[in-house]
Amino acid sequence: MTNAVGRTLVLAFLLVCFPLSATGGGIAAASAGSVDDGSALAGVAAQQEAPDAGGDDAADNDTVRHRNPDEYDEGADQAELERWLSDRLSGQLEDGAIQLSEGEADLASQFVGEEYSDRLEQYVEVTGDAERAEAFDQAQNEQKRMTEAVSEYEETKEEYEAAREAGDEERARELARELESLAEEIGNSSQNVQDHYDSISNDSDIDLTDAAEEIEDVNEEVQTEQAAIREESFVETELSIEATSEYISFTDPLVASGTVETENGTPIANREIRLKVGNQEIRTETDESGWFDFEYRPISVPLSADSVTVEYVPENESTYLGSETSVPVDIEQVEPTIAIDDVEPDTVAYGDRVDVDYDLRVGDERVDDVPVAVSVDGTPIGLFGSSNGSTTGNPTVPADVPSGERDLRISLPFEDRALASVTTSTTVTVAETEPELSVSASPTGEREVTVNGTLEATGGGVEGQSVRLVADGAVLETVSTDADGAFGASVTVPEETATGEVQLVAVHDDEGTNLARTEAATTVSFPTSADSLLPTWAWLALGLFVAAVGAGGYWYRDRASASAPIPTDPDEADDDAPTTAGTSDPVSSRTLLSRASDQLSSGNPNDAVRDCYAAVRQSLESRFAASGPLTHWEFYRRYSDRSADAETESAPLRDVTEGYERAAFGPDGVSEREAEAVLERARELCSEATRTGPADD
After folding, report:
1. Where do Low complexity bias regions lie (predicted)?
2. Is the pLDDT of residue 686 over 90?
3. 305 vs 416: CA distance, rounded Å
């Protein structure tokens, strides 16, 4: 799409759906309408007719928030369209901030919701300004987080006040501690939102000063409320730490001592306390003066760190408030060793849990509670914690690991950390799993069909797998399964196929997985030519056409009998000599099968499958006296219709036909394993045709 066409289409969409860059009450009406009764456009129209409520103040505002839609005709230049969209986005940010400051968190979240995302997509399409679009996107995400945190803070505060009123001091302190965390989160989000506002307003005429002030007002109100809750619920503490040396490593740990006491100097004496040092938890005990000591071995701390944070973390029911300080450090890297002791089970399949017992050490010291990465055949299973030398979590085999003997690798995936990266591996056998595929279809138009289905294995859907939708040998579309293993598509059946009962087949045969090939079929009914109600003149024209065809029928049959789609053995016939359909030649079929076997041995599976199909076609045409050129699927259907037990007897031919289709027309062809299966089926069919002779017509 050219820029001009793209801008025109986006502009047309905006003019039809959103004729006014509404703000304040207009946007509120649109948002509420979209949720409640679909009356968004009525709200916008009302805003258009409303007088300017801003008065002189609005006239003095340099940021134009409302624009006349008549100004945006098809000749509008890109700068005007960009301005319209940026005004819209910044306006929604500001309106969301206003609603948040007024205590309307639900409404505030709508301003940075789905409509905002749609506008942002249009902004990217029109402007291509990735940097500004990123700023708009980050502002949206951070403002949503802040809005959700404020909403949760208000709900938790109501619970806190109810607990205090009921005299449940322990529950009140637990809730007060939750409020402390939420208040900290709100403070961080407030600063981030304002930073993103600055990025949006940088070097542009967008002014988000008012929105930034609203966000800051919300934060200040929360922090003021939390200060009061903190004072009535907790006793604040101070933490002091002294280290013997700042040069530390895993083998040369940080040795430190310290004190923890209340704000007025009263020691927190004679109790077990919990310290969080870096990302590790350490427990120690204080004496009567509040003094304690501890050791800390750095594991995942970056080598660039010049300090580590030590935090006193009281229990939830404690009356004390936590406190923290930092200790200067200089970290030296140490290289550990890792070994796999055992893998259970040694043969796994899709969805199986893999238990790995391993030993991570630095010298003689075991290292626990460290994240390790597990992969099979290069496919990551995930990042897992460890405890007592074994992985924790649920590392299971994904579908995207081919079956067979595969490499299982476990590693400490660190880079420039206190412990160096280390890896080791072993082998496991990945078994093939038989999945279950289902498909349904219904016509939705003259040749259009809606297809739905699921791919499941071990009792659940399989995500991210390709499924081909095939009708009469033609691939209509390739779809991918979602998180539940479901797939769906709207496909168009070829005109020459869309008549009568049409079989639609879903096929999953990705060799890059540990799932076996599987397929499922359904039928769709289309009107036949006899079902169509043609006007009289059309029947007359059809009659003339049939007469003309009849006059040339003998010539056509002469030509048809002289041409055959089946290749012959070059040792027994001239390359240019056609094979007559309906002629029995069992020797030629045996020769073709022999050549197919040679082709397979020479590493040419596609040529082998084509020879297999040629042999089968010759044998079965003699049995059913088939005449005239037929496609491979037309021939399959004729054979199936004439078989006594169509479902059982046509299964081998279906396997050969599908193999031939992939070998002759598929982008990837067939594998040697698939060619071996086709050769076995072809021998079965040719032997059966020779033994039974021609079938009754």
Report:
1. 44-53
2. no
3. 10
- Asked if residue 652 lies in contact with residue 684, where contact means CB atoms within 8 angstroms, the answer is yes
Rounded distance between C-alpha atoms, residue 21 and residue 44, angstroms: 9
Nearest to 622 by CA among 526, 528, 686: 686
- 3-state DSSP assignment of residue 417: strand
Which one-letter DSSP state was computed for residue 251? S
- Residue 206: CB partners within 8 Å, gap ≥ 6? 63, 86, 87, 90, 200
Q: Are 406 and 377 in contact (CB under 8 A)?
A: yes
Unique residue bearing structure tokens 């109600």: 533
> What pLDDT is recorded for position 392?
60
Give the pLDDT mean for 122-149.
Answer: 88
Mean pLDDT of the chain: 78
Q: How far apart are the first and last CA of the chain?
A: 58
| 652 membership: H or E segment, kind and range | helix 646-665
Question: Residues 435, 518: contact at Cβ < 8 Å?
Answer: yes
pLDDT-derived band of residue 625, with 50, 70 and 90 as boundaries?
Answer: low
- H-state helical runs in 414-573: 536-551, 553-561
> Hunting for tokens 């007024």 — which residue is that?
102
- Which tokens go with 470? 């095939």
> How far is it between the farthest Cα atoms of the chain?
117
In the chain, what are the helix, strand and coil shares in percent, each to the nearest 5? Answer: 45, 25, 30
Sign of the dihedral defined by the CA atoms of residues 576, 577, 581, 587, in that order: negative
Q: Which residues of 385-396 are buried (b: 16+ CB within 10 A; e: fewer)?
A: ebeebbbeeebe
Sequence-distant contacts of 420-423: CB under 8 A, at least 24 apart: 420/333, 420/334, 420/335, 420/336, 422/335, 422/336, 422/337, 422/338, 422/360, 423/338
What's the pTM? 0.55
Flag whether pLDDT at 253 surpasses 70: yes
Mind giving me the DSSP string for 596-647? HHHHHHTT-HHHHHHHHHHHHHHHHHHHHT--S---HHHHHHHHHHH-TTHH
Other CB atoms within 10 A of residue 466 CB = 16
Who wins on pLDDT, 235 or 14?
235
Neighbouring C-alpha atoms within 13 Å toward the C-beta of 689: 27
User: Higher pLDDT residue, 39 or 221?
Assistant: 221
The contacts of residue 84 (CB under 8 Å, 6+ apart) are: 14, 21, 67, 72
Looking at the chain, the whole-number percentage of residues with pLDDT higher than 70 is 75
Q: How far apart are CA 584 and CA 618, in angstroms?
A: 7
Summarised one tens digit per residue, pLDDT across range 42-70 is 333 333 333 333 344 433 444 433 344 44
Euclidean distance between CA atoms 28 and 112, whole angstroms: 12
CB within 8 Å of 332: residues ≥ 6 apart? 247, 248, 249, 252, 418
